[in-house]
Amino acid sequence: MSQDLARIRAFVQVFDAGGFSAAARQHGRSKALLSKYVTDLEDYLGVRLMNRTTRKLSLTEAGEAYYREAGQVLAQLDELDATISDQTAEPRGLVRVSAPRNFGETTLAPAIFEFVARNPMVSIDLRLEDRFVDLVEEGIDVALRISTLSDSSLIARRISEMKHVICASPALISRVGRPVAGEQLRGVPCVLDTNMPSHNSWRFVEDGTALSVHVSGPVRVNSPVAAMQAALAGLGFAVLPTYLADPLVREGRLVKVLEDRMPEGPSLTAVYPHRRHLAGKVRALIDHLVAWFATNPVR
Question: Which residue, 7, 54, 72, 128, has most beta carbons within 10 Å?
Fold first, then answer.
């Protein structure tokens, strides 16, 4: 089998280089050996692949078809070899990571930095921004997103469950009352986070039935931290991730409501471009994050 691959590779190398002499110089092989490999391949196939003259080398019709297929096969084998070597070697190189700013600053950064500390051959470019990032266009290796996956051109791996709660300030609850059903939020002030897929239609589960309630209020934001600040200021009920809300609830500055009626939230997901093989350094980072959040769950 190795001899067959050597003959196929010699044929592709000779045509790519434009001749036997050039291929011999480029790949450190003798011209005679390359010529023998190509002749042996033609004899095995029972067809001439190349037209050879002193001035020009060209492919026959059969040679063109064989070159196309052989080139693809060799490229896949080379990619597979590189991937296996990459996965078995120590992770190394630059990894570009995208994540939401607030989550990245408060919760993700410690996990990322521990990975860097454990893998000294890896460097991280961590980009924290609250906007949709095109991974392919912007050269991002992996993005951490708190959402459901909608882009079919990406591959996703769930890292951790996320939980959201509805909170309000004690002063607002004293003024408008504490709701005991989702419908009671209709007509009372709410803070709308436009990053949420249905920012003005909040979902609940009541008696096993999904319910959607249209909400409105004096403030629209595109940041969970800004929504949190608006809730603290008494401007409305807000849907907040627990990693932001829980410390303030423990301090008594916010109050959770309708906690038993909240549907299952989105997941923290690692998404990356659709590639045949995932780079070892990226796979190592994702594996680390799965392990990290299994022992340090998002609260």
Answer: 7
Q: What is the CATH number of the domain that holds 250?
A: 3.40.190.10
Q: Dump pLDDT digits (tens) for 232-249.
A: 999 999 999 888 899 999
How far is 299 from 286, CA to CA, in rounded Å? 20
Question: Quick one: CA torsion of 210, 269, 228, 220, rounded to 10 degrees?
Answer: -70
Distance from C-alpha of 247 to C-alpha of 256, rounded to nearest angstrom: 12
Give dist(CA 124, CA 107) in Å, integer.
Answer: 16
Q: What is the per-residue pLDDT across 5-22, written as a single tens digit (0 to 9) for each?
A: 888 888 988 888 888 888
Residue with tokens 């096993």: 208
Six token digits for residue 275: 């590639």
Distance CA 110, CA 283 (A): 18
Please indicate, yes or no, whether residues 217 and 154 belong to a single structural domain of this protein.
Answer: no
Chain centroid to Cα 60, Å, comes to 44
Crossing angle between the packed helical segments 280-295 and 109-118, to the nearest 10 degrees: 130
Count of residues in the chain: 299
Q: Clarify whether residues 137 and 188 are in a common domain.
A: no
Q: Are residues 133 and 50 in the same domain?
A: no
Closest CA to 221 of 205, 242, 200: 200
- The domain in which residue 25 lies consists of 2-88
Phi, psi of 243 (to 5 degrees): -65, -20
Of 247, 222, 212, the C-alpha closest to 232 is 247
Closest CA to 38 of 51, 49, 26, 52: 49
